[in-house]
Design goal:
The protein contains 13 helices and 15 strands. By secondary structure, it is an alpha/beta fold. The protein has two domains: 18-50 and 324-441, Aspartate Aminotransferase, domain 1 (Alpha-Beta Complex), CATH 3.90.1150.10; 52-322, Type I PLP-dependent aspartate aminotransferase-like (Major domain) (Aspartate Aminotransferase, domain 2, 3-Layer(aba) Sandwich). It has a seven-stranded mixed beta sheet, with helices on both faces. The two termini are 38 Å apart. The relative contact order is 0.16. The chain binds pyridoxal-5'-phosphate.
Length: 442
């Protein structure tokens, strides 16, 4: 096959060409089987090759494939919004988009419009966190805080203020969990005050960090503290649940464990099962009210609110519920975590195992005692990932967790239907790949 007309992500890498998927497995054009250990981009909540998903997409394509939201709506868009309301009952309005970046941008625009229509026109800044990722458009890179992904674009990015992440393994304040009083959350208050609360519209963050930090979860109480600071200064709390939302952590929202309700939520990936580009911005009635009162919400793109995306959202959310997949995520997540903790006993290079549900990160270090990371030139995580790939397992490498300078991690996170045997196969291959990487580095 001639692939020469594709501009690849990495144009020096010889990508295997997949032709088929079934469950957790992918098959390339030579018939080699791969386990998808990171569910695409930690995005696919459902397994490959589901007939029911194929049928609803085909049925919708025949019935009504496209509407444009400026002129008309579609029955299935209302049904998708109803399904989202059932999944996130504390949210009231849903704007349907085609992906995660679109969702975070629409979320930040909604925050600005909310205040604009209330006459607080100066409230425009969006504070965010270093070591975060909210998408690849220029504005999303601006409020994102992934040094590697921002690097080439820095001259054209805005700077509204970034605070430190709640990265306990490498705490920016050199605290440990016992002596910490969530100073990393207090940093939001300082940043708001430095900017002037009258100029700040929102704070956006990932409740569980994605690829930038490899599944960092904040300490208990973090979400509530952020919530309280946002209320104190009349700042909207925007939660980016593009990767961790819709069940990946075992609950529909990762904030549920602290019973915290955000003002705005960005969703994508898992609400589409892995079958169509989808996304949604959810907000409370209070946030939507000033925008609704003015009429217009001038946000979105041609494919925002597409009926095919809507039917996929509706069907995916109903499968997650009917097949009790949240329970499976909890159980399989625990099993995966247990197996990874056992690997940590075996390999001195595993510094940290962290995460929640089917979103688990493994951080590698040269020395467990000092947490010194491997020379970035070695590309330790990349080597583990390539060794996994050779042995038929796809995993997601992460780099630069230590303020962008170095650090290696791997993210694992399968679809929600995974079973114990599949997890055991994943961990077995992962173990062999680490062995090979370590022996190559000796
Ligand atoms: C937390 C988070 N936000 C936003 C995005 C961007 O989503 P998309 O790639 O669908 O535009 C991602 C993608 O990985 C993500 O993990």
């Amino acid at each position: 096959m001639n692939h020469s007309h594709i501009l690849y992500f990495d144009n020096n890498f010889d990508y295997p060409v997949m032709v088929k998927g079934k469950g957790i497995y992918l098959y390339d054009e030579e018939g080699k089987e791969y386990i998808d250990g990171c569910a695409g981009a930690v995005s696919n909540s459902l397994g490959f090759g589901r007939k029911d998903m194929a049928e609803v997409i085909a049925g919708q394509a025949e019935k009504l494939s496209f509407v444009h939201r400026h002129y008309v709506s579609a029955d299935v868009n209302h049904q998708a919004a109803d399904a989202l309301k059932e999944a996130f009952p504390y949210m009231d309005r849903f704007f349907l988009v085609s992906g995660g970046t679109e969702a975070t941008e629409a979320a930040t625009k909604l925050a600005r419009l909310h205040f604009y229509h209330k006459g607080q026109v100066k409230k425009t800044k969006i504070i965010s966190r270093w070591m975060s990722y909210h998408g690849y458009t220029l504005d999303a890179l601006s409020y994102g805080g992934n040094p590697g992904r921002r690097k080439e674009f820095t001259p054209v990015l805005r700077e509204d203020g970034h605070i430190m992440p709640p990265y306990c393994y490498r705490c920016w304040l050199s605290k440990d969990c016992k002596s910490c009083s969530l100073e990393c959350a207090d940093a939001l208050e300082d940043m708001i005050l430095m900017n002037g609360p009258e100029n700040v519209a929102g704070f956006i963050f990932e409740p569980v960090s994605g690829t930038t930090l490899g599944c960092v979860t904040p300490p208990e109480g973090y979400f509530q503290k952020i919530r309280d600071i946002c209320i104190k200064y009349d700042i909207l709390m925007i939660v980016d649940e593009v990767m961790c939302g819709a069940g990946r952590t075992g609950t529909m929202s990762a904030l549920e464990k602290e019973r915290v309700v955000p003002d705005i939520m960005a969703l994508a990936k898992s609400i589409g099962g892995g079958y169509f580009p989808v996304g949604a911005v959810a907000c409370t009635g209070e946030v939507a009210q000033p925008v609704i009162a003015r009429g217009m919400f001038p946000v979105g793109h041609t494919w925002s609110g597409n009926p095919l995306a809507s039917v996929v959202i509706k069907k995916t959310l109903s499968i997650i519920k009917e097949e009790n997949l949240l329970q499976n995520v909890k159980e399989m997540g625990e099993h995966l975590r247990g197996r990874l903790m056992a690997l940590q006993e075996k390999f001195a290079c595993i510094g940290d195992v962290r995460g929640v549900g089917l979103m688990q990160g493994i951080e590698f270090v040269k020395s467990r005692k000092t947490k010194e990371y491997f020379d970035p030139e070695l590309d330790f995580a990349g080597t583990v990932s390539r060794n996994c790939m050779e042995m038929g397992l796809i995993v997601m490498p992460c780099h630069g967790m230590d303020k962008g300078r170095g650090g290696d991690a791997i993210m694992l996170g399968t679809n929600f239907e995974v079973n114990k045997e599949e997890i055991d196969r994943i961990v077995h291959i992962f173990e062999k790949a680490i062995e090979k990487t370590v022996s190559g580095n000796r």
